[in-house]
Amino acid sequence: MNEVIMGLYEIEEQAGKITEESSLRRQEISEEYQRQKEQAEAELKAELEGRLTILRSQVEGQKAEEIARLTEESREQIEAINASYEQSLEQFAQEIVGRITEG
Question: What digits encode the pLDDT tens for the residues 86-100?
Answer without folding.
Answer: 888 888 888 888 888
